[in-house]
Please model this.
Amino acid sequence: MSSKRNELTLFVVVLTITSPLATGEIALAREYLSPAAVVADAQGKTLYIAQTTAEQVAVFDIETSKVTATISVGAEPTGLALTDDAALLYVTCAAPEGSVCVIKTDTGKVTRQFPAGYGAQAPVLSGDGKTLYVCNRFDNNISVISTERGKQITSIPALREPVAADITPEGKWLFVGNQLPHGPANGDSVACNISVIDARTSAFEIDIPLPNGSTGLQDLVVSPDGRYVFVSHILARYTTPTTQLERGWINTNAVSIIDARYRTLMETVLLDDVDHGAANPWALACTSDGKLLCVTHAGTHELSVIEIRPLIDKIFAHQRRNRIQGERSTAGSYSSYSYGSGSGSNIPNELSFLYGLRERIKLPGKGPRSLAIIGRKAYVAEYFTDSMAVVDISEDSRHKTSSVALGPKTTMTAQRWGEMLFNDALLCFQSWQSCASCHPSDARVDALNWDLLNDGLGNPKNTKSLLLSHQTPPSMITGIRESAELAVRAGIRHILFAVRPEQEAAAIDEYLKSLKPVPSPHLLDGKLSESARQGRTVFRKAGCSSCHAGPLFTDLHKYDVGIGEGMDKGRLFDTPGLVEIWRTAPYLYDGRAATIKDVVTTHNSHDKHGRTSDLSEGEIKDLVEFVLSQ
Model:
């Protein structure tokens, strides 16, 4: 968790809990279920639940509220797609060589397996069931798979870590959500995008940028009438120093609305209340009649239920007022109608915009992820408590909730508890954010620069991955924290604005120390390519190995490598390890380098960051390939 000294802290919250660590209830590691994806059959009788750490799919009977069977898929299941007749269930499985398991639901057997890409997830079926679209997160593309032939027809490039997708009812447009911003972090706007694909031709159409600061995208869903696409994401206020939390000063939490017909951003609305954040919006689902939109909040363990038509009407009314005011301000000149930020909208800053249109419902379990809606009941997978929340969302129900255990109760290990705390915004003052808000996706990066004040005011630094942070002291880009342990505790005080029991920080330490690097997509069959092997020689020739030394590619020292600007001119920067560097763009302390090639060429004019100025184009290419293969 990034953290820096914050001398302007205004509020600190002190909370106490009874922890498993404190009561001696931490046991040896056991198998958890970790339900993360849910799909319901058209009859509303059966749910299928992807249980990631158990590497299985559970069959859940709605009438009896019981798991009737489990089906092993042999790898981490990440997404589910069910045919209209519920005869076949397609299960994406994440791995360097991803796959799609095909389950016959009447027998509960895996009958076929299709190849997919790295980090396969978010499967979407075409209306006729003949085509399956799969987001390959770490290949940054979408596989178009023939379900009859069981093979890929083509692949379509995405931007960065595609993790969510949905298709319009007539099968024309496929919308794909990219989790993280791409490009440098020091530009005028840094945000993740929605990629739009013409599903009938399997051709890329357009990228729709979300508002500046959009990151941590988790899900998107097309409304039943096909008119709107709803997208859940964080809306970070990274351009301001992190001096307070009130009114979403650091992170806010949002749903963006895309006009599916015109494929444009219509508006972005905040899910937070004025003094109560709605941290880490995750899954989205609409009722079949299109009246309600449901959003799970993974950080605050809640479900938001939003009235769609009144929401759209309020947005249109707001935009009409903006248009009229714009026409008046131009002294009668014609002002064309435009959506979202192009119309000067202030809606993304209005914490009370959803007042009267939304209900926030506390869930009984921890870590809500995916959900399915049957009639007026929402079924929510609760990741950390291995449970299914059942919420009555009918208007006169008072939103009665219950929780169903999906398996035997297990005692949390310190690592598992630390992971839950890392994702829990209830640790934070007013619940605006969790550690995962700035370190989404297993404690990696959000691709933004933050002015965290521990090395001065007005010199933002790029978010670092926390992988191997405990093994590579000091912490922070400038090495201002002697260890990751100190950084974790400083982060709780100065980023979450809280004082928490020491046991919680110790558990977060254990979680972060348990993180393992995942293989680079640049490897071939788990080994260096010929280009990367040549690049290893160049790496040594250019002197890179003198600082990026050892198995973690860092000597743990700080250097002035000639890249500091402004108040960071001449500053010493900690030598970053290169393990999993392919996953952590942008690069350098201020994220100015969009690619590793930019690091060793454009931003290394004086050869203080490796002797690269006299390398040939071929050597540069091989060097980059070697670095990205780590």
